[in-house]
Amino acid sequence: MSKFTTIIGLEVHTQLKTQSKLFCGCANEFNPDHPNTQTCPVCLGLPGALPVMNRTAFDLSLKTGLALNCHIPLFTKWDRKQYYYPDLPKAYQISQFDLPFSENGWLEIANDEDGKPPRRIGITRAHLEEDAGKNIHDESGRGGDSCVDLNRTGTPLLEIVSEPDLRTASEARRYLEDLRTLLLFIDVSDCNMQEGSLRCDANVNLHFHNDDGSVTATPIVELKNMNSFRNVELAIEYEAKRQKKDFEKTGRTIDDAPKVTRGWDAERNVTFAQREKEDSSDYRYFPDPDLVPVVLTQTEIDAVREALPETPAKKRDRFQSDLGLSEYDASVILGQGPELTAYFESVASTCGDGKIAANWVTQDVLRDLNASESGLSEFPITAEILGALLKWITDERLTNKSARDVYALLKERAADGQAISASDVETLAAEREIVRDTGALEAAIQSAIAARPDAVEDVKAGKLQAIGPIMGMVMKQVSGADPKTVREMLISMIQK
Ligand SMILES: [Zn+2]
User: Fold this and answer.
1) How do residues 460-479 score in pLDDT, each as one tens digit?
2) Which of 36, 94, 105, 200 could form a cystine bridge with 69, CB 3.0-4.6 A?
3) Would you tell me how many other CB atoms lie within 10 Å of the CB of residue 117?
4) Per DSSP, which regions of 143-197 are E strands?
5) 316/447 same-domain check
6) Are 381 and 448 in the same domain?
7) What are residue 80's DSSP bridge partners?
8) Is 125 a member of any domain?
9) Does residue 280 contact residue 81 with C-beta atoms inside 8 Å?
10) DSSP labels for 112-133?
11) Tens digit of each residue's pLDDT (9 = 90 or more) over 103-149
12) Of 401, 431, 461, which one is at a domain's C-terminal end?
């Protein structure tokens, strides 16, 4: 009974890009250096203060639900989830229980196996809720104070829950990467994991396949504290191995043990037991009497759907089918976000060749961007400049090598503080244009033939590789000479 499948579902919390918090006018900003400066009676939970829903937060969650192909109900409401934490002053969180803003959708992700069609991962629901604050404990071990910062209390979070459709740790990572890319393209969150605007929990268990065709499932574990996609992948890999060992030793199944929470220790690369997971009945959900239900019309939903930009999954398909990109190159470009993707699309359309544009963007441009401190907006080789340069290649008027020389020269000029433009490309490229003019090449070829009679004899005797050194002499003499033309002319002149 050793054959098993790993069953993974992910819960992603993403902070929405609004100016103010979900139910009050306080600024929605990451501001850890000035604790408790972004608070008011509503987010402090003072008696008598009344919440009002932030319409932008709702619009962004609607946009996300539609981009995730979810069903959007026309009637939804807010619920109170009761629990006590020092950083949750009301002792309840405003969330959504039985009627979420969106449900039953899917996200298409690239297949882990090369050449296989994309996989659809089910989205159970996506609902809005308010975030808690932050408890800050003295970790020096000297028994210092614990502090509470309520700046983050009440910021809008969208919780996106997937179906348990993921099967490997690397697939879970792919899902997260593609979800993040989608959220960036529809511009609902900055998805900054360091600042906590994208967080992920994973539900993991194993299904052992018995000889009689039945399945035995291990207890479900919820993994927390994973602050990077890499850590999500590592934690799931570790947890699957741990559950296999535990099952082989104890035989405990999902029926014998409650769901538990385990944390991820990134220092030691292990998961550790935290607590038994509460049941939803422990939270005593009930409709929030301070907030009106949210009622939508189909016309409103259709208008938001119409206005959705092209999703990354559709762009990936189009880049492969229309521009001839590999799945890998398309994913690398899209994974860099909307800005670089727009840059690539502009370069590809100017030069007229998606593959050449992708090669330059994924190699030269990304290398230079990674090496520099600044972003694409400061990058001196604009899409217009690179597009103009690559047009010379697609027109077969410039070799790749000469184009790299021009690119390097332009970067040097920009580093010296000179303004560079597409017209500089024209001047520099023209100086290196491929020479196919037979008149200009003939004299150089004749003198090379005269200089290497030995090689000429070898070529005449059928040793075609001897043509190399003669060609080298011509290429050196006429900069930009087209190798193909030189070779053809050489052979015909030697054989005369
Ligand atoms: Zn407030």
Assistant:
1) 888 888 888 888 888 888 87
2) 105
3) 9
4) 146-149, 156-162
5) no
6) no
7) 94, 286
8) yes
9) no
10) SSTTSPPEEEEEEEEEEEE---
11) 999 999 988 777 788 899 999 999 999 999 999 888 787 878 889 99
12) 431
CA 152 to ligand 1 centroid distance, Å: 9
pLDDT at 1: 54
- Evaluate whether residue 209 is within a structural domain: no
> Is 225 or 343 the better-scoring residue by pLDDT?
343
- Domain that includes residue 414, residue range: 310-431
- Identify the pLDDT of residue 112: 73
Q: How many A from CA of 51 to the centre of ligand 1?
A: 9
Q: How many angstroms separate the alpha carbon of residue 245 from the centre of ligand 1? A: 48
Ligand 1: distance of its center to the CA of 185 in Å?
Answer: 29
On whether residue 243 sits in a domain, the answer given is: no
Token reading at 293? 């239900």
In this structure, are 278 and 146 located in the same domain?
A: yes
423 and 276 in a single domain? The answer is no
Beta strands in 144-285 (DSSP E): 146-149, 156-162, 198-209, 215-217, 221-226, 260-265, 270-276
**442 and 427 part of one domain:** no
Q: Do 377 and 444 belong together in one domain?
A: no
Residue 180 CA to residue 120 CA, distance in Å, equals 16
Cα–Cα distance for residue pair 45/39, rounded to 1 Å: 10
Distance (Å, whole) CA 109 – CA 355: 22
The alpha carbon of 21 and the centre of ligand 1 are apart by a number of angstroms equal to 7
Q: Exposure of 140 by Cβ count < 10 A (0-12 exposed, 13-18 middle, 19+ buried)?
A: exposed
Which of 431, 464, 486 represents a domain boundary (last residue)? 431
CA of 19 to the centre of ligand 1 (A): 12
Our count of domains for the chain comes to 3
For residue range 365-415, list pLDDT tens digits in order. Answer: 999 999 988 889 999 999 999 999 999 999 999 988 899 999 999 999 999
CA distances in angstroms from 102 to 15, 182, 299, 461, listed in the order given: 17, 16, 16, 78
Mean pLDDT check: name the lowest of 285-289, 341-345, 430-434: 430-434
Between CA 70 and CA 297 the distance in angstroms is 16
Contact between 455 and 467 (Cβ < 8 Å): yes
Ligand 1: centre distance to CA 45 (Å):
9
Ligand 1: centre distance to CA 38 (Å):
7
Distance 474 CA to ligand 1 centre (A): 76
